[in-house]
Amino acid sequence: MSTNPISTNGNIYDQLMRGIDLVPQNDYVRHGSLLVERSIDREFVRAEKYLRGDSVMRATFDHLEYAKRPTYIDKDESARGSIDYFSPVRNTISWDPRVAHRFADGGRQSPALALAHEAAHADEGVDERDRLFEKKLPLFDNAEERRVILGPETHAARTLGEGTRTAHDGQEYRVATPTSR
Fold first, then answer.
1. What ranges make up the beta strands (E) of 112-180?
2. How far apart are CA 100 and CA 134, in angstroms?
3. What is the mean pLDDT of the chain?
4. Which of 49, 101, 152, 161 would bridge with 120, disulfide CB 3.0–4.6 Å?
């Protein structure tokens, strides 16, 4: 299933989608309340196992897997290239398990850490997430991106030996596996 190719954070475009059938139609593999598109399930399992090496990500995935509302994880097939994002309206993470990120300081993050970043958005309460998305900040775009980057993402990156960042930026590049850098 192709997901939202316009919005990187599930903002304006997702608001326009209200009222349209928001139930994804792809073939999914269930991991508790996480429903993973079958075509990327093997990569998801590998990424999740890796991320569970961090206590914050272990708690994040436990919470998402036992949530009352399902969260979908779709393969990112954006026409604009890989744009991992979380759509709050569809409660869907769009993720490319073969795209890593490189930062200006030379730091690198695996596709698994990109999944962790989007899972942290999905795990935040709706009211708080919406409030933080509305607060614009230089370097981070908004307070929600700052919360995720400097909080759960940085914690996981340090635990797992990956690069950290201090802004919502980076260049994408292809890798062989979800845990490659």
1. 136-137, 141-142, 171-174
2. 27
3. 86
4. 152
